[in-house]
Amino acid sequence: MHFFISLGYIGLLLGSFLAGSIVPFSSELLLTAAIASNANPWICLIVCCIGNIAGGMTCYWLGHLGKLDWLVKHKIIREDQLTRFLPKIERYGALFALLSWLPFAGEAISVCLGFLRVKTIPVLLYMSIGKTLRYFVFFVSTLGIIRLF
Fold it and tell me: Which DSSP symbol is given to 75?
C-alpha cells in the first residue's frame, strides 16, 4: 500500500486499475490512504474511478478474446462463474455491467460481457456508472470519517 501512495496520483491510478482487473486488491483502502495523506480528495476520486473502469474494461477485453480454456487455465475466471453469469448476461446485456463493481463477481461479470461480445460502448457506460456510484458512496462516507479525526 505504501508503495502506491508514494507514487501519488499515478500510484492511485495503478492500484485502482489492478483492483478493477483480475488482481485481488483493495482500491478502497488505497483511496482512504490517499485522502488521509492530504491529497486532493476530488482528484483521488476521479483517478480511482478512471483506473478501476480501465481495469474492468481490461477484463472485458480478456473475455472478448473468447478463449475459454485460456481464461480458466490462467485463473481469470472459473468455469462455474462463467456458466452462472452467462444466462443472466444474455438476458440483461450491457445493463449487467452496472454490477461490475461487486467484489469477486465483478471481474467475472466483465469477462462474461466480453465473452458474449456485448457492445463495448454500452458496457463502458454502465460499468462507469456502477463503479463511479460505488466509489462516490464510499468516498462520501470515508471523507466524513476522516474529517471526524
Answer: T
